[in-house]
Amino acid sequence: MATIRDVARVAGVSVTTVSHVFSGRRKVAPATIQAVTEVAERLGYRPNGVARTLATGKSTTVGLHFEIGEDALLLNPFFSELLVGFAAASADYGFTFKLLPHDLDVNVDSASLMGALVVDPSPQNPWVPFLARRGSRIVTISRFLGETEVSSVDNDLGDGMHEVLDHLSEQGYHNLALISVRQRASYAVDIEAAFREGCDQRGLKGEVVFASDLSDRAARRVAIELLERRDPPTAIIGVIDHMALGVLHAAQEMGVAVPEALGVVGFNDTVLSRHAVPPLTTVRIEPEELAREALRLMHGFWLDPNCPDEEIRLPAQLVKRASTQRA
Amino acid sequence: MATIRDVARVAGVSVTTVSHVFSGRRKVAPATIQAVTEVAERLGYRPNGVARTLATGKSTTVGLHFEIGEDALLLNPFFSELLVGFAAASADYGFTFKLLPHDLDVNVDSASLMGALVVDPSPQNPWVPFLARRGSRIVTISRFLGETEVSSVDNDLGDGMHEVLDHLSEQGYHNLALISVRQRASYAVDIEAAFREGCDQRGLKGEVVFASDLSDRAARRVAIELLERRDPPTAIIGVIDHMALGVLHAAQEMGVAVPEALGVVGFNDTVLSRHAVPPLTTVRIEPEELAREALRLMHGFWLDPNCPDEEIRLPAQLVKRASTQRA
DNA sequence: CTGAAAGCGCTAACAT
DNA sequence: ATGTTAGCGCTTTCAG
């Protein structure tokens, strides 16, 4: 691999000059630029980013952490969509990603990270405080409800829930249940709060029940319990599509007709909801938008390390499908 | 951030010693280790990986490239599963990942990569030759059918196809169609070859048709065409689960009973196949296994940069579900 | 408009 | 068992 010195020598200029034609951080004579570029091309020279990062102390790598573990989140297509969004947007901003392992690993080379994107952190997420303390700028997808102050980009899920409730009551569903999880991630908190408030406001009966984890199986178990009651809910909402699918399965197994006897609603509008039978009413959020905004914030931090934290809020929109359309 | 020099000074030893207590590359007196560790702890010192990489010329970062684009691959849960597998295995080997953008970006800092993992490359994949030329070791998931010599870990999909054909003919499906794609990735090539050969061997009628891309929609369109024929196939196989789902939808829309009038088979055994209605017969591969093997190879290269390339082949196993069980 | 030279934080001969 | 020192490849004052 040719180094900056090789190029300088062959082109008959100093390394300083070569450095500047590549960084563009100071004016260089057009003829010199021409010559240097040519030599560099010929020698197959590419600036070494590691050396550059070391010299400047400014990295262009951002950490990426998905808080996915034993539970079913790992199968949630939402994450793939987000990932694609990140990959796409990274090209525009010149960032490159480093995947952070699931468990906090003190050996991770935080010196090489300018910041980190953390997806759906729970308040116990160890990476957020860890990285923040080391001086990394952090942007979370959905909010971090722990102590550390960070930037975030999130959807207005509460708003989405209100749309859901309007729709359900319009369709004649008045006895509702929300299947949530104990893990206090912001999306669960927001959805629950809006659910309780919205049911009160509309005079709907609404109960929140908890599944042991985010899997469809766990949701299915809870749904079966709900449907076995003498006064079962007429509509069940899952905090993520995955769980709503579990409800769908429970209903099918128990011979409960959807949407006639039971309305089912999910959140996120992943492929799963379109492919469900019947197709699932859900709340749409835009993963690519989330990714793009997150990277925009990150880029702001890169330009100005002292740029203050920001909280971006994107809309969430109800998508009506067959699982709640009583005709 | 404390540097190695701060630690050395405070601990009253040389930087060399500090370096060695952290790298373990030479014996250091227990007492010294103790003292250095203590000071480091107190000062919050962490070795700077960027500097280390520069000094050693040996990085522990591996590039990760998913050849996902406009087509539906981005929604294929298989990738999430692989990703989780990579993340899990990386902990064991001490690797960390750098996501490579979809399009070849010459500005990517290949100097910081010891190697790259490329998932399902088509023969036109630009990253493989690019990185190989820069001296990165490459491991592909499924084989790279282009010119460049690389290591790979792959499943024996041909074997899986033979199991599929045995099963189908056993169930009385004798007029088969395989929906594949024009993109000549190794999985499509392998599956097609085994399909043709297997049908011949068993005296089954077998036709390969092509969808415009890997999406369920494209597969659905092709399936509709197939089913509208005067002599429609009695079983349709999709090269990935996603496409088989499209077939399922086409059948449903056209009132064709699955599995009675039509058998449907997919590949990969993603969540989608379990959640399909009816559940999809498919060929199971193990994403975590693939990830683990790939990283094992990569680690071998890290230990010995001259370690020869290797081609790992993992099994693929038929999973019989309702979509082909004629009772 | 261009150079010289001092680092960035760490490793690895080469010494002792 | 430990230390000295010369880099790794690049950026960046400070000079010209």
How would you explain this protein's 3D organization?
Two copies of one chain form a homodimer. Chain A has helices at residues 4-11, 15-23, 30-43, 49-56, 77-93, 127-133, 157-170, 186-202, 216-228, 241-254, 271-275, 287-303; strands at 61-66, 96-99, 115-119, 137-141, 151-155, 175-181, 205-211, 235-238, 263-268, 281-284, 311-314, 317-319. With 327 residues, the first copy, chain A, is α/β, with parallel strands linked by helices. The longest helix of chain A is centred in the N-terminal third of the chain and has 17 residues, at 77-93. Chain A folds into three domains: 4-45, 434 Repressor (Amino-terminal Domain) (Orthogonal Bundle); 61-154 and 287-314, Response regulator (Rossmann fold, 3-Layer(aba) Sandwich); 157-286, Response regulator (Rossmann fold), CATH 3.40.50. In chain A, 52% of the residues are buried. Chain A is 44% helix and 18% strand. In chain A, helix 10 (241-254) links the parallel strand 8 (235-238) and strand 9 (263-268). Chains A and B meet through helix 4, strand 1, helix 5, strand 2 and helix 11 of A and helix 4, strand 1, helix 5, strand 2 and helix 11 of B. The structure holds a DNA duplex (16 and 16 nucleotides).
Give the arrangement of secondary structure elements.
2 copies of one chain form a homodimer.
Chain A: H1 4-11, H2 15-23, H3 30-43, H4 49-56, E1 61-66, H5 77-93, E2 96-99, E3 115-119, H6 127-133, E4 137-141, E5 151-155, H7 157-170, E6 175-181, H8 186-202, E7 205-211, H9 216-228, E8 235-238, H10 241-254, E9 263-268, H11 271-275, E10 281-284, H12 287-303, E11 311-314, E12 317-319
Parallel strand pairs in A: 1-2, 1-3, 3-4, 4-5, 5-11, 6-7, 6-8, 8-9, 9-10
Antiparallel strand pairs in A: 10-12
Helix pairs in contact in A: 1-2, 1-3, 5-12, 7-8, 9-10
The first copy, chain A, binds a DNA duplex (16 and 16 nucleotides) through α2 and α4.
